[in-house]
Amino acid sequence: MEEKKKKVINTTITRNTADFNRGTENIYETVAMLTKRANQIAAEEKRELHNRIDDFKSNNDTADEMFENREQIEIVRRYEMQPKPTLEATEEYLEGKIFYRNPNKVSAETKQSEAIDEEIAEEFNNLMV
């Protein structure tokens, strides 16, 4: 796993809910976004863990070797000690590392912006006459 992510605190701390309204102006929308990001992080970690464990597989392992492979145990322990994906997603959001766009809001903002542009152009044309 990338070591740059490991600066995240591994315990839950109290947060100011106002910090979660910054990008979306809706705390529920923020929570939904953080959930999606945490799922992405968890899937990435799971894929990486399985890839690292698969490196130790061999077709001729005995039953004793399968249960006592120290390298695999250490790898799994290290992954268990990592911060939870929800904590990582929350930290990324608070540091401004997550890009978020709601297509419904973007289209509404675009329409509003176009309407304002039309009003300005109309006022300018009226002044020119």
Fill in the keyword field for this structure:
single chain, 129 residues, mainly alpha, elongated
Number of helices: 5
Helicity, in percent?
55-70%
State the end-to-end distance.
66 Å
Overall body shape: elongated
Please describe the biggest sheet, giving its number of strands, its sense, and whether it closes into a barrel. none
Element order, helices and strands?
Answer: HHHHH
Q: How large a portion of the residues is in β-strands, by DSSP E?
A: under 5%
The rounded Rg comes to 24 Å
Structural class: mainly alpha
DSSP strand count: 0
Uncertain stretches of 5 or more adjacent residues: none
User: Overall pLDDT, averaged?
Assistant: 77
Please provide a written account of the structure.
There is one protein chain. The protein is an all-alpha fold. It is 62% helix and 0% strand.
Question: What are the SSEs and their pairings?
Answer:
Elements: H1 27-54, H2 63-67, H3 70-80, H4 85-94, H5 103-128
Helix pairs in contact: 1-3, 1-4
